[in-house]
Specification:
By secondary structure, the protein is α/β, with parallel strands linked by helices. The chain contains 6 helices and 6 strands; from the N terminus they run βαβαβαββαβαα. Its EC number is 2.1.1.207.
């Protein structure tokens, strides 16, 4: 089983870089749906991802319909949106029956409304106070969701305990 973070037409290189770093640290695959609002050579994106780019599996898709065609089971697609009625903690991600995909919209406009109307049962949301903010930061949202998924999966292949040298801590 593999987890996938999918970004629809991301605009901000720092967000994408931070998400790539999270993907590297969680063994999560990253998908970028074009057009991108930056060059993948952008210095801000590289700085945000630091030296982790070679540790992330990145797949590029020309558009949203092309990405959807690559998903073996549409029921494993979760669309993260503040307009969803179901919390991101509600689905059971521990079932080991294939890959899970978490689709995040563009920072400024989210996902296209016709697409959202086509898959309403796939939508999940992170609770927030909508009276104070429009949306949570994209890279924070991706981290919140992927760590809930990994928690339910008992953090597969992730180191959970470090042995510390007490002399170094003094």
């Amino acid at each position: 089983m593999t987890n996938h973070i999918v970004l629809f037409e991301p605009l901000m290189p720092a967000n994408t870089g931070n998400i790539a770093r999270t993907c590297a640290g969680t063994d999560t695959e990253l998908h970028l749906i074009k057009p991108l609002g930056f060059s993948v050579d952008d210095k801000h994106m590289k700085r945000a991802g630091l030296d982790y780019w070679d540790k992330v599996k990145i797949t590029y898709h020309d558009n949203l319909p092309d990405f959807i065609k690559t998903i073996p089971d549409i029921n494993k697609l979760f669309i993260v949106s503040k307009f969803a009625s179901r919390d991101y903690t509600t689905p059971d991600y521990s079932v080991n029956t294939g890959d899970y995909y978490f689709l995040f919209g563009k920072e400024t406009t989210g996902l296209p409304e016709p697409f959202m109307r086509r898959y309403p049962e796939n939508a999940i949301r992170i609770p927030q106070d909508d009276s104070k903010i429009r949306a949570l930061n994209l890279s924070n949202s991706a981290a919140i969701v992927i760590y809930e998924v990994l928690r339910q999966q008992s953090f597969p292949n992730l180191e959970r305990v470090h042995e510390y040298d007490n002399d170094k801590l003094k």
